Amino acid sequence: MSEDIAFWLSYLTNGKHLTWYASFQFTIFAAVAGGILAVVFGLIGATLKNSRYLPLRLIGTFYSSIVRGVPDVLFFLFFPLAFEQAVEWIWASQVCTPEMIAAQSAAWPPCKAANWILTTPEYLILASVSLGLVYGAFATNVIHGAMRSVPHGQLEAARAYGMSTGQVLWRVQIRQMWVYALPGLSNVWMLIIKATSLLSLLQIADIVLWADRLGAPNFLPAVGLVHDDWRWRYYLVLFVFYILVTLISEKGFNALMRRAGRGMLNEGHH
Amino acid sequence: MAQTAGAIVEKLPVVAIRDLHKSFGALEVLKGISFTAREGEVISLIGSSGSGKSTLLRCINMLEVPDKGVVAIDGEEIKLRGEAPRRHIGDENQIRRIRSELGMVFQSFNLWAHLTILENVMEAPLIVQKRARPEVEAEARAMLTKVGIGEKADSYPSQLSGGQQQRAAIARALCINPRVMLFDEPTSALDPELEVEVLRVIKILADEGRTMVLVTHDMEFARSVSDRVIFLHQGLIEEEGTPEEVFGATKSARLKQFLNAANHE
C-alpha cells in the first residue's frame, strides 16, 4: 500500500509531469490575456459601430460580422504566421542587402538577418491577440447591444451638463452597459476558455500537448514513463480542470454582476 | 417673483432668443419665436402638447439645434454652423462651457442610475467644471439638504420615489451654480401627491431670485411662481405677460379656450 503511494508520488512528480503542471500557466495566461483583449477590442468595435461617421461604422460592422464567421482554428493558424511574416518582410526591407538576399537559399525570410525566431512567450502573446481578435468580434456585438440599452435620457442629461462626447461615452454609457453586457460576455469568456485548448497548434507545449504525450504508451521509458495507453486518464484530468475553471468563472461573473448592477438591478425599494 | 418696484437698473438678458425656427421632418414645431429672460426672472412656457414648448426649452441648451434663429446666453451667441436640416453645433468647447452653466431638470429625472445620489450631484462640478472635490462634496450635501433629501445621499436613484428623484435632479442642477435653470415639465411624471414636494422646492428657488425657464402644464403653479408667462400655440407666441395679465385679463381666444380646458382637467 505504502509502496503504491510512493510509486505514484514519484511518478506524478517526475520532471515531465512537473513540466505538464507548469504548462497550465500558458493556458491560464492565454485565457486571461485573450479575455481582456477581447473586451478591449469589443469596446473599440462597439464604439466604432456607434460612431456618427459612416466609414468608422463600416469598420466596426465589418469586424463584428466578418471575423465572427471565421473559424477560430483557422484564425489561430493564420494570424500569428501572417504577423510573423509581415514583421520579417518589413524588417527585411530595412536590413537585407542584395548580396544577402542572393546568399539566402531558403524561400523565406528574404535574408537570414531578417529571420525572427519565435519562442513560447512570443507565440503566447500572438495566441492571446488571436483569441482577442476573434472573440473581440463577439464581444463587439454584445457590447454594442448593451450600449444601446443604456437609457437615452441619461446620455442626454450628461450632454446637457456639458460633458464631451468622450465623457458621455466613458463616464455614463460604458459604466452602465456592463450590467447588460455581462451575461453575453460570460458566454464569450467560456468560448475563449475552450479555445485555449488550441494553443498546441502554435508550437506551445500546453496542457493538451503534454497530456497527449504523457498518456501515450511507453513515452520515455528511460524516465519511468512505462504504461499502456493512458491518454484517457490524462484527458480526464483536463476535463476536471476545465470544469473547475467554469465553476470559478461563474462565481466570478456573479460577483462582477453584483458590482455592475449596483443601483441598476432591483434590490429592494424605498 | 415679481421684480421689486424699486429696481431702476435695467437687468441684463441672461437668455435671449431671436426668431427661432425648428422642424422635425415636415412638421414645423417652432415658427419664429423670440423672447428674453432677464436676471432673476422666472418665465413659464405654457401651451397644449405639441405647441413646441419643450422643443423651445431644449433649444436653449442646444439639445435640439434650431433650424434658424439665435440663442444667446449672457449676451454670448451660441455658435451654430451649416443650414437646416444639417445645422449643428459650431464650437464644441463653447457649447460645453455654456451648458455647464445651465441647470436642466428633465421630465423623467434622468439621474445616472449607476451613481449614488451624492455622486450624481457631484459629477458635473467635478468632471465638467473641474472643481475641487472637498468643496463640491460640501456643496452637494448642502444642496441635497436644501431639497429635503440629505439622508438619501448614499442611495441609488432606483431606491428613491419619483418625487425624491426629481428633487435630487434639482440638487444636481443647483450644484453647478447655474446662470439659468431649465425645467422641462418637472412634475409631469409624478403622482399628484409627489408633485407637491417638487413644486415646493421650485417655488423656494424662484423666491431666491434665480433665473428660471419652466415648461409646465400646471396653471396654478405657473401663476404663483412666474414673473412672466408665455403661451405658445402651434409654434408661435400667442400671448405673453405677467401672470395677472395672462390669467386675469386674457386677450387671446385660444388662450381662453386652453385655460378653460386646463381648468376642467
UniProtKB/TrEMBL annotation, chain A:
Entry membrane topology: Multi-pass membrane protein
GO annotation, cellular component aspect: plasma membrane
Keyword Transmembrane listed: yes
InterPro entries given in the database record: ABC_transp_permease_HisMQ, MetI-like, MetI-like_sf
Segments passing through the bilayer: 20-46, 58-83, 123-143, 188-211, 231-249
Any single GO BP term: transmembrane transport
Domain ABC transmembrane type-1: 24-253
CDD domains, alphabetized: TM_PBP2
Cellular compartments annotated: Cell membrane
Keywords assigned by UniProt, alphabetized: Membrane, Transmembrane, Transmembrane helix, Transport
Pfam families (alphabetical): BPD_transp_1
PANTHER family: CATIONIC AMINO ACID TRANSPORTER, MEMBRANE COMPONENT
Family stated for the protein in its record: Belongs to the binding-protein-dependent transport system permease family.
Protein name listed in UniProt: ABC transporter permease
UniProtKB/TrEMBL annotation, chain B:
CDD domains referenced in this protein's UniProt entry, alphabetically: ABC_HisP_GlnQ (cd03262)
Subcellular location: Cell membrane
Domain ABC transporter per the UniProt entry, residue ranges: 15-259
Source species of the chain: Devosia epidermidihirudinis
GO molecular function term, any single one: ATP hydrolysis activity
Identification of the protein by name: ABC transporter domain-containing protein
InterPro entries documented for this protein: AAA+_ATPase (IPR003593), ABC_ATPase_HisP-typ (IPR030679), ABC_transporter-like_ATP-bd (IPR003439), ABC_transporter-like_CS (IPR017871), MetN_ABC_transporter-like (IPR050086), P-loop_NTPase (IPR027417)
Pfam families for this protein: ABC_tran
Family of the protein in this entry: Belongs to the ABC transporter superfamily.
GO cellular component, one term: plasma membrane
Broad class of the protein's primary localization: membrane
Membrane topology: Peripheral membrane protein
Keywords: ATP-binding, Cell membrane, Membrane, Nucleotide-binding, Transport
